[in-house]
């Protein structure tokens, strides 16, 4: 089985501070850490930790962070033959300030993520079309993702489109190219313009997307689980119970999707893929960090595989 991720890769730069600084204020932080992030990179790493044959298509900068990201992909045995490096550009960065009360503020600097070109996507045509599952997000230029979607559908790949971060307007052509559109409640509300405060409202909003051409809608509901809508049928999966107290939910959605993509490519069983992805993401929220919180295959039940 194979999973190709077309998307973003960032370096998270996290400063822990007593309070968020005011304009013009200089404060002393208590600690600092950096970590690999970006929705695309997170999803690719999770699929690889499960043993997937994973490739990542994206762009990093010609800087130290870019080299570290490339090394991280290699350390996870991810194919980066179509990960390009932009000259005279920073890699994607996310400076994050976290206060002692848990408040945060984040600055996203897309950097090289915004510089990947349609031509670079076309150069990866063979890789995309041979994949079983191709996974997308909204952290690289939309026209680039659209080209990759078209290429994927010319082959036999199943396409999963994660509408994060959500945009109010998506081109109508996109919907017919998507086999599974994945959104949380907030994202679903943004892209449909519908109020989504209950499961029934989520179902109705999803049907609006299906009318536009999407084959299936996967809704992640946090502690309420997840739901797949296809036509008039639904698959509802309760959230798995975390094995320990929840301490950090960052990256849990990417953990779920990377796991879901892996198991769907492996078995084609939607319900089973959702159940296993729920179990794995429930583990991740009991650990600090994003990619560092993701469980390895050896930590999971043998009957998962």
From TrEMBL:
<comment type="similarity">
    <text>Belongs to the carbohydrate kinase PfkB family. Ribokinase subfamily.</text>
</comment>
<feature type="binding site">
    <location>
        <begin position="253"/>
        <end position="254"/>
    </location>
    <ligand>
        <name>ATP</name>
    </ligand>
</feature>
<keyword id="KW-0547">Nucleotide-binding</keyword>
<feature type="binding site">
    <location>
        <position position="284"/>
    </location>
    <ligand>
        <name>K(+)</name>
    </ligand>
</feature>
<dbReference type="GO" id="GO:0005634">
    <property type="term" value="C:nucleus"/>
</dbReference>
<feature type="binding site">
    <location>
        <position position="139"/>
    </location>
    <ligand>
        <name>substrate</name>
    </ligand>
</feature>
<feature type="binding site">
    <location>
        <position position="184"/>
    </location>
    <ligand>
        <name>ATP</name>
    </ligand>
</feature>
<keyword id="KW-0479">Metal-binding</keyword>
<dbReference type="InterPro" id="IPR011611">
    <property type="entry name" value="PfkB_dom"/>
</dbReference>
<feature type="active site" description="Proton acceptor">
    <location>
        <position position="254"/>
    </location>
</feature>
<feature type="binding site">
    <location>
        <begin position="38"/>
        <end position="42"/>
    </location>
    <ligand>
        <name>substrate</name>
    </ligand>
</feature>
<keyword id="KW-0630">Potassium</keyword>
<keyword id="KW-0808">Transferase</keyword>
<keyword id="KW-0539">Nucleus</keyword>
<comment type="pathway">
    <text>Carbohydrate metabolism; D-ribose degradation; D-ribose 5-phosphate from beta-D-ribopyranose: step 2/2.</text>
</comment>
<feature type="binding site">
    <location>
        <position position="250"/>
    </location>
    <ligand>
        <name>K(+)</name>
    </ligand>
</feature>
<dbReference type="GO" id="GO:0005524">
    <property type="term" value="F:ATP binding"/>
</dbReference>
<dbReference type="Pfam" id="PF00294">
    <property type="entry name" value="PfkB"/>
</dbReference>
<feature type="binding site">
    <location>
        <position position="287"/>
    </location>
    <ligand>
        <name>K(+)</name>
    </ligand>
</feature>
<feature type="binding site">
    <location>
        <position position="293"/>
    </location>
    <ligand>
        <name>K(+)</name>
    </ligand>
</feature>
<feature type="binding site">
    <location>
        <begin position="10"/>
        <end position="12"/>
    </location>
    <ligand>
        <name>substrate</name>
    </ligand>
</feature>
<keyword id="KW-0067">ATP-binding</keyword>
<feature type="binding site">
    <location>
        <position position="289"/>
    </location>
    <ligand>
        <name>K(+)</name>
    </ligand>
</feature>
<dbReference type="GO" id="GO:0005829">
    <property type="term" value="C:cytosol"/>
</dbReference>
<dbReference type="InterPro" id="IPR002139">
    <property type="entry name" value="Ribo/fructo_kinase"/>
</dbReference>
<keyword id="KW-0460">Magnesium</keyword>
<dbReference type="InterPro" id="IPR011877">
    <property type="entry name" value="Ribokinase"/>
</dbReference>
<feature type="binding site">
    <location>
        <position position="254"/>
    </location>
    <ligand>
        <name>substrate</name>
    </ligand>
</feature>
<keyword id="KW-0418">Kinase</keyword>
<dbReference type="GO" id="GO:0019303">
    <property type="term" value="P:D-ribose catabolic process"/>
</dbReference>
<comment type="function">
    <text>Catalyzes the phosphorylation of ribose at O-5 in a reaction requiring ATP and magnesium. The resulting D-ribose-5-phosphate can then be used either for sythesis of nucleotides, histidine, and tryptophan, or as a component of the pentose phosphate pathway.</text>
</comment>
<feature type="binding site">
    <location>
        <position position="248"/>
    </location>
    <ligand>
        <name>K(+)</name>
    </ligand>
</feature>
<feature type="domain" description="Carbohydrate kinase PfkB">
    <location>
        <begin position="2"/>
        <end position="296"/>
    </location>
</feature>
<comment type="subunit">
    <text>Homodimer.</text>
</comment>
<dbReference type="GO" id="GO:0004747">
    <property type="term" value="F:ribokinase activity"/>
</dbReference>
<dbReference type="InterPro" id="IPR029056">
    <property type="entry name" value="Ribokinase-like"/>
</dbReference>
<keyword id="KW-0963">Cytoplasm</keyword>
<dbReference type="GO" id="GO:0046872">
    <property type="term" value="F:metal ion binding"/>
</dbReference>
<protein>
    <recommendedName>
        <fullName>Ribokinase</fullName>
        <ecNumber>2.7.1.15</ecNumber>
    </recommendedName>
</protein>
<feature type="binding site">
    <location>
        <begin position="220"/>
        <end position="225"/>
    </location>
    <ligand>
        <name>ATP</name>
    </ligand>
</feature>
<keyword id="KW-0119">Carbohydrate metabolism</keyword>
